[in-house]
Amino acid sequence: MLHRLPEDEQNLVLPSGFDEIVRVVDLYAADRQSGVPRLRRSTKRRLPALLFTRVPGAADTAASGDSPPGGASAPSALVRAYRKRLVRPGQGEAGHLASLVPHALADEARLACEPVPEDGSPAEDPYLVLLDKVARQLRDSMPDGAGSLRLGEFAVCLSVLRCQLPADAVDERVAMRNLLYGRHAWTFGLGAEVTRLTEDLGPRKGAALLRAAAVPVALLWRWWYGVRLNHGPRRRWVAGMLGETGRSFLGAAVALREAHLRARAAATGEARHPAAGAAAARDAAAVRQILLTALIRDLAKASRPPFWSRRRPRRPWSFVVLLPDVGAEGTPSRKFLDTFAAVAEDNPDCPLLVLGAANVDVPPYVVQHTGQDGLPDPAREIAALYASGTAGRPDQAVHALTLSRTPDGGSAADRLAVRPTVRVRGGRHQGWARPIAAGTALLLVAGGGYELWPSGTRASADDNKAAPVASCQRVRTGEVVGLTDGSDGCDLAHGLYASQLRALEHTMGQQNAQVDPSKPYRTLVFFAPLSVGSQSRRTVPTGLQILRGALLAQKEVNSLNLKHQVQVRLLVANSGEYFHYGSLHGLNTKNLSHTDVSRMIVDRVARDHIAAVFGLTQSRPESLQAAIELGTRGIPVLGTGVTGQPMVEDSPVSYFQLSPPDERVAQIMASFAGQSPRLHALTKPAPGHPAPAAIVVFDPDDTYFSADLKNRFTSDYATAGPVRLVPYRESDGGSQTPAVAANVCTLVRQTNGFVLYAGRSGVMHDLFYYLQGDKNCRTHGGRVPVLAESSAPDLVLHPELMSQNYGSLALFYSQFSLPDANGPFARGFREAFGVSTDSDAAAGYDAVKILFGVMTDISGTDPDFRPSSVVTFLQSPGVKDYVGESGIMTLGNGAKYPRGKEVHIREITSSGTTETDLTCGALAASKDPVTRWGPSDRFPCPPEPEPGVGPAS
Fold first, then answer.
1. What is the side-by-side strand order in the sheet with 914-920?
2. Are 896 and 657 spatial neighbours (Cβ–Cβ below 8 Å)?
3. How far from chain centre, in Å, is Cα 811?
């Protein structure tokens, strides 16, 4: 294929441009962190799997490797032939092939030749056989001078699946330990000593003495092996993947074996229970994922020997796995790819480079790229994907590249013949410098070299750990995070919108000063990201509108003259951009400082009489961890502007929110996209579908919001139209935005579909800027429709900006309320702040009003109530049919969010005005919930699923 071919492969024809793709793959096969400076390399690197496909043609045969008349060879043949680039002729006269990179070819044709068990037992799962062969090939293809490949965790897990425990075993864990000890434990080599002892003392005395000495040692060694195997940290992840409690690996191993046996029983038709099929499918998937995870962990460990090892610089390569026969669902190679996609995200340190060819349609989770004639350079797309993985920003686990059908004409093979194999770094004598330097350093330390460490440095580190955390402090991004009441000297304002936040802090300080401390009062904390870093140019935080609504509500409730009421003070807590400093440890793995704003709130509960926290405004692991930290101290959290499904499914009992979750929002958006005449007027139905194609722009790293919304929308929209996925990361600093926009506009031009924007509002302007400037979008023949859940706040408040700045786009966006523009709330809001209201402002207003009502009710019977009393009240009796500016809401009695909450989809027209195209749910101005939408109420609102029921994320 890629160099001088043997006679039986002379019919192989390269697609146009394939030589450049091969050069990119060669680069990352030889060095998995290619392009990353040596001093900046780390373990958190993962390359996406690459799947080659080709546009089907009349002359194609799906699984054939033959060259079709006048066209390039099938992708499967290209993948098979790539293996030749990973070997070279060996040195000397042996004539063997030396491996340049550890690699394995998953050949399904050989799996069909596996012998059938003679005892009549069912054949082993082909996936296990395939993975075992892949592991053996990787072990056998280690390059010369790179040492041997040890696959300890994989071997143990495979033995667990294949073992036969005694039928009369009293304790299966002990039987499992003994079996694993016999197969994998290191044994003592005492053969020569036994022979000499027997000769000196005679057979009987020698054997007796040896037995007396060996038995205690063997028992002690087996006990120690069992302790390390069962309670060692290396294999605790197995129990976590199986959902088993405790730290016992042997208990998890028994559960893993039972899951494997249940899956085999279902596969052979031995399971009789009607629900056994679904359970067996889950068991089989868990077994496959655990086995592949064990292999990945072993390879990751092998790819980074200790820093003092001379082999460390000799192992920069990737472990290459070739899948030439990725077929229909259920085939071994397809199972391997499915499992890789499932576990890749949980294994950021993955040295595998997977290269495959699809013989049928690609799986739905694959992100597709087009490399056909006249379209963007496919080699550059692959290079960008690999570069993103090596930079620590891994994309979706699997990507597919459609190869050109045009043959290269022979030039590619000639160019690649100049370099017929992958270029790798060979063994060098400099590798011995590492163990020599490490030994020297060890001697220096042992001889007193530790005194070279400055004592002052140790003292300062200890002092920093013991330093108390203030109520506000400046962090490395330049932001000031923490709490303020508007008059304590803590100014949280920073960044582009500092003046707006500073004005609101001043208003809050004035209103708090009017609270009479001699009368009953409680403090509510608005907790949200309210600033951006010094180098960030993100759009205005949504929290500013929510804070405005909360300040207006505080002013109104404190001006009431009720016979019995609680005054309200407000504090503002800034978590920093991306909620980075809002929590510490747990789900927040990005905050490596000692700053924890949630802890600051907890520390001021008694001093400020804090009763509850509201806001959050973002669905992130960091914000959920904040809710957990506050919940452990009995502080309730009322979320506003939060829609991520994990926020309601994984949050503590002290958490509630005013907005519907992604499960409901995706359902509404899918119904709108599939039926809306306004949207369809800008699109065309996809071939074979009643609705247009959806180009879903999402952030694969944002699992709590963007990826969750993508998964749920894709599931709900599957019956209406096709879905194309385009990754767009919030955290890449904008470097990939032009390429993302070009990909989106190309797909819009090809499909005449619409864009489903599942990203964050903070990076919407970045993408819109490049979409507006792209030729394919500008010459589309009409505005490109964009449907978004989280839209930029300034576009909602000032819709005329769309026609002024993004005339080629038509924005449709969701809202959870439509405050009456002429009502008292909207008028008071404009008078107080000089801007219009929106659903965020209404949510902040209602949050304070709801908590005020709860606190007033509690204080009638318990004037000295604590935050935990608010939690208890919200749980039961809760809040029933509260009529607010953001709709009619019921919370508590098992409901963490208001079911039946109103949802609207609005459109910004070409003239810069807004129109409401869809309304569903309970409205404050309507007696009955709205159940139909569209012209003449043509379309029904989708029924809201029961909590916990719906498409899986």
1. 723-727, 694-698, 754-757, 784-788, 809-815, 903-908, 914-920
2. yes
3. 27
Identity at 448, one-letter amino acid code: G
Residue 103's closest CA among 30, 8, 49, 175? 30
Q: Which two tokens stand for residue 324?
A: 């030439």
Non-local CB neighbours of 859 within 8 Å, separated by 6+ positions: 520, 564, 566, 865
User: Which pair of structure tokens corresponds to residue 905?
Assistant: 């989809």
Rounded distance between C-alpha atoms, residue 879 and residue 149, angstroms: 62
- Of 475, 514, 474, the closest CA to residue 491 belongs to 474
Residue-wise pLDDT tens digits, 767-826: 999 999 999 999 888 899 999 999 999 899 999 999 999 999 999 999 999 999 899 999
What gap in Å lies between CA 678 and CA 683, rounded to an integer?
9
pLDDT, tens digit (0-9, with 9 covering 90-100), for 197-215:
555 555 556 556 555 565 5
Q: Which of 943, 941, 944 is nearest to 917 (CA)?
A: 941
Rounded to 5 degrees, what are φ and ψ at 521?
A: -150, 160
The Cα–Cα gap between 21 and 382 comes to 7
Q: At residue 855, does pLDDT exceed 70? A: yes
Q: What is the per-residue burial (b if ≥16 Cβ within 10 Å, else e) of 163-173? A: eeeeeeeeebb
Residues 6+ apart with CB under 8 A from 7: none
Q: Largest Cα–Cα distance in the chain?
A: 109
C-alpha to C-alpha distance for 660 and 662, rounded to whole angstroms: 7
Residue pair 248/230 in contact by the 8 Å Cβ criterion:
yes
What type of residue sits at position 195?
T
**Which residues are CB-contacts of 358 (< 8 A; sequence separation ≥ 6)?**
51, 52, 53, 75, 326, 400
Who contacts 644 (Cβ-Cβ below 8 Å, separation ≥6)?
619, 620, 661, 662, 704, 705, 708
Query: Could you tell me which residues are beta bridge partners of residue 561?
Result: none
Residue 184, sorted as left (phi over 0), alpha (psi -120 to 50) or beta, turns out to be alpha
Q: Rounded distance, CA 308 to CA 809, Å?
A: 57
Element (H, E) at 750: helix 737-751
- Taking the C-alpha atoms of residue 3 and residue 415, their distance in angstroms, rounded to an integer, is 9
pTM: 0.58
C-alpha distances in Å from residue 659, one per residue of 86, 169, 685, 716, 892: 54, 55, 32, 20, 14
What is the SS3 string spanning 456-514? HHHHHHHHHHHCCCCCEEECCCCCEEEEECCCCCCCCCCCCCHHHHHHHHHHHHHHHHC
As a whole number of Å, the CA-based R_g of the chain is 32
* pLDDT above 90 for 39: no
In angstroms, rounded to a whole number, what is the distance separating the alpha carbons of residues 477 and 496?
13
Pull the structure tokens for residue 664. Answer: 């409901």
Nearest-angstrom CA–CA distance, 261 and 271: 11
